[in-house]
Write a structure and sequence with these properties.
alpha/beta; 16 strands
């Protein structure tokens, strides 16, 4: 856990730093927002930012988003300053911590961030096999290609491997190759010098340099453009990067992990992914099973998410009834663990009574997808559905389907694209088109695409 503190926290920076370090965090301190951004551009990464409310938090959040630093911001202020707390949250801060700092409160925030990236929960033999292989290969420096459907937990297992590796004390840096536009991905990976292109107002260290001494995870590598694949191959072969606009290569000491939700051999045959790069990445292959192939994990994962979101929303933790568990077990989970998490989040908010009952669990396509043997619709139901579509354009039906699916997924675009059967790039282009037409498009949750 890397904590970056901005400002002196009203004279409480020493106490806050001591609490964070006692919980295992590495703490860095800068005077203001500009210094913070310069530190991040220079490769001093952070998993969490604490900033005093006297700073311009809206400006900080905007700059982080514009330069693609996905780092949660926690505001800190004097205990009785309620107006400042409300303003900070509205400006984009994830939480407000009153000062003087409370040890348990800061510990809870740090643990929440750590838990998000390191939890591996399972009870199935299929996942036990995956964990066994991960334990075996983690100590090596070999590149690993992790495959599996969207939402199966490929990034979770990648973080598990890093934590078990000899590079565990170094950083693990993640780059989502599908979520970053092609014209920005090269700079994101390899960095750039000031003035290298329009908008390059300062030098920025790329993710490969930031990961020096640790691990870099190239998430959804199959979405990378062929031109950039050639440059990546050279980096993997030579272990050096060329910043855009730079005049000499920079050596890097990194381990490379990559993920994909596609059939890699198929896209190699189609010519959209380089064969030499595939073999360079695929020294060891690890396949994540779908949730429907590891149904024993539904209960422990569901209970974990219920507890997580109950605490996050200040709600008493309810238990799943036997009927509710049966409903979850019968569903096919096209969105895998990510869909289960979203479903449990919704369930926590909708449940009433002592336990969670089936009626609080809303599943995609209810009721036909809840059962493995769905009952056919009556002729009247089919006729009503057909009549509702007659007279509408294909574009309008497609638009409604996309937006409804996105709302079902709580704005998670990767999950929505998986359910819709389209690429995340296609979904992003559709949403951009709808936004330009003046439609309200659900925003992606922070840190997701």
């Amino acid at each position: 856990m890397r904590l970056l503190i901005i400002g002196d926290l009203y004279g409480q920076i020493g106490a806050a730093s001591a609490i964070a370090r006692s919980r295992g965090a590495k703490v860095a301190h800068v005077a203001d927002i500009e210094a913070a951004m310069n530190a991040l551009r220079d490769g001093q990464g952070a998993d969490l930012i604490m900033v005093e409310v006297r700073e311009d938090i809206e400006k900080l959040v905007t700059m982080l988003m514009r330069e693609r630093f996905n780092i949660p911001v926690i505001a800190c202020g004097v205990q009785n300053d309620k107006d400042a707390a409300v303003k900070a949250i509205k400006s984009g801060a994830k939480e407000y911590i009153p000062l003087p700092p409370n040890e348990e409160l800061i510990a809870a925030v740090l643990e929440a961030i750590t838990e998000e990236t390191q939890s591996v929960i399972f009870a199935s033999a299929a996942m036990a096999k995956v964990i066994g292989l991960a334990d075996q290969i983690a100590p090596s420096d070999a590149s690993i290609l992790i495959t599996g459907e969207s939402g199966t937990g490929k990034e979770v297992i990648a973080r598990y491997i890093h934590k078990k590796s000899k590079r565990a004390k170094g950083q693990m840096i993640t780059v989502n190759c599908a979520a970053i536009p092609e014209n920005l991905l090269e700079s994101e990976l390899f960095g750039h010098e000031k003035g290298a292109f329009t908008g390059a107002v300062a030098r920025r260290i790329g993710k490969f340099e930031e990961a020096d001494g640790g691990t870099i995870l190239l998430d959804e590598i199959s979405e990378m453009d062929l031109r950039l694949q050639a440059k990546l191959l050279r980096v993997l072969q030579e272990r050096e990067v060329d910043r855009i606009g730079g005049n000499k290569p920079v050596k890097v000491n990194i381990r490379v992990l990559a993920t994909s939700n596609r059939d890699m051999l198929d896209i190699v045959k189609k010519g959209t992914f380089r064969e030499d790069l595939y073999f360079r990445l695929n020294v060891i292959s690890l396949n994540m099973p779908s949730l429907r192939d590891r149904r024993e994990d539904i209960k422990p994962l569901g209970e974990h998410f219920i507890e997580k979101y109950s605490k996050a929303n200040g709600i008493a933790v309810r238990r799943l009834s036997e009927d509710a568990l049966a409903k979850l077990a019968q569903y096919q989970w096209p969105g895998n663990v990510r869909e289960l998490e979203n479903t449990m989040h919704r369930t926590v908010l909708l449940a009433t009574g002592k336990n969670i009952e089936p009626d609080a669990i809303l599943l995609q396509g209810q009721p036909s997808l809840v059962s493995n043997n769905p009952q056919p619709e009556t002729n009247n139901e089919q006729r009503a559905t057909s009549n509702a579509l007659v007279g509408r354009t294909v574009d309008s039906v497609e638009q409604e389907l996309i937006l409804d699916t996105l709302n079902h997924c709580l704005g998670n675009r990767t999950h929505a694209a998986n359910i819709l059967g389209i690429s995340i790039r296609t979904l992003r282009n559709k949403l951009k088109q709808y936004g330009e037409q003046g439609m309200a498009v659900p925003p992606a949750p922070t840190g997701t695409e």
